[in-house]
Design goal:
The chain is α/β, with parallel strands linked by helices and 301 residues long. It folds into 2 domains: 11-104 and 213-300, Rossmann fold (3-Layer(aba) Sandwich); 129-210, Orthogonal Bundle (DNA polymerase, domain 1), CATH 1.10.150.170. It is built from 12 helices and 9 strands. It has a 7-stranded mixed β-sheet, sandwiched between helices. A two-stranded antiparallel ribbon has the order 6-7. The longest helix is centred in the middle third of the chain and has 14 residues, at 157-170. It is globular and about 65 Å long. The structure holds S-adenosylmethionine (SAM).
Length: 301
């Protein structure tokens, strides 16, 4: 049985947007270790949860035994229409997205997201059809450069791509530590002295491999079909590329003074002018929460 290591982030901040006594129908699109889901279930709300991860499904099966008002679907949240095939309610009062990977996935050496442990180059935590190994060993120089520039914001992405293509001619790059060696030997100026020099490259490979930004963008084009009038959409992101997509989504679907900026008959009242970030206290007990940002909107139509 899986040990659940994941601590849910900003639970009180999220629950502060539940303002009345009504029992809500909640959609948790990133179930993970189930922490957020439980915080809703324990207050009597109905929760439908989604996650693509097998371990998440196992945790969900255990929760299902104890809570009647809970359903779980193992699927990618970009494929929301798959929810239409069940007999459950398909419009929700509260929709939560807590993006990225869980601590359970971070600690899983078979996935190998971390650069602190040596593991086979993989990083695929969403059942995707490619791995970091495929990207590093078979993408063209141009494709590699795009991934490092777009998803790692690495200034010398072309130089890095060239170096990797040269290095892999001698021998394929098989593990996280081998990749770190190549990154070090490339003598690229990585952005910040404060973070490990491999952070940006690992982030880029993880985003490409799991199609993180594509999933989020597709999800956002569909979500208005699944949210009830006055429903809340709350999204926690972990890096600036995700946060930019969320911010722009709310901005381009803004509702103000009886006007829908998107010219459709729906929009959002923005409830977080600036994103909410975790308290110092939370960061001290859960350092992983450090980079998280919460943006929230109320659906109006
Ligand atoms: C940060 S964790 C969520 C933790 C959760 N809120 C909790 O309290 O335990 C993110 C989870 O979302 C899942 N996930 C990320 N992208 C997904 C996607 N596109 N479709 C389905 N699940 C996804 C991951 O597998 C991971 O379990």
């Amino acid at each position: 049985m899986i040990t659940n290591l994941h601590k849910p982030i900003m639970v009180d901040e999220i629950l502060s947007f539940v303002t009345n006594d009504k029992k809500l129908s909640v959609l948790d699109c990133t179930f993970g270790g189930g922490g957020h889901t439980l915080s809703f279930l324990n207050r009597g709300h109905q929760v439908t949860a989604i996650d693509q991860d097998l371990n998440a499904q196992e945790i969900a099966n255990n929760i299902k035994v104890k809570y009647k008002k809970f359903n779980f679907f193992k699927m990618n949240f970009k494929d929301l229409e798959r929810l239409n095939n069940n007999d459950l309610e398909n419009k929700f009062d509260f929709i939560l997205l807590d993006l990225g990977f869980s601590s359970n996935q971070l600690e899983d050496i078979k996935i190998g997201i971390s650069f602190k442990e040596n593991s086979n180059l993989n990083m695929n935590y969403l059942n995707s059809n490619i791995t970091a190994y495929d990207i590093i060993n078979s993408y063209s120089e141009d494709e590699l450069s795009r991934v490092f520039a777009d998803y790692g914001e690495i200034n010398q992405s072309t130089k890095l791509a060239k170096f990797i293509v040269k290095a892999r001619k001698d021998k394929s790059i098989n593990t996280n530590f081998e990749l770190i060696e190549v990154l070090r030997d490339s003598r690229i100026n990585f952005r910040s002295k404060k973070i490990h020099f491999a952070t940006q490259a690992f982030q880029a490979l993880r985003i490409e491999c799991n199609k993180e930004l594509e999933n989020l963008t597709i999800f956002l084009t569909k979500i208005f079909n699944y949210i009830n009038k006055d429903g809340i959409l709350a999204i926690i992101s972990f890096h600036s590329l995700e946060d930019r997509i969320v911010k722009n989504y709310f901005k381009s679907n803004f509702f103000k003074k009886d006007k829908y900026i998107n010219q459709k008959n729906w929009g959002y009242q923005i409830l977080t002018k600036k994103p909410i970030t975790p308290s110092e206290m939370e960061i001290s007990v859960n350092p992983r929460s450090r980079s998280s940002k919460l943006r929230v909107g109320r659906f109006v139509n």
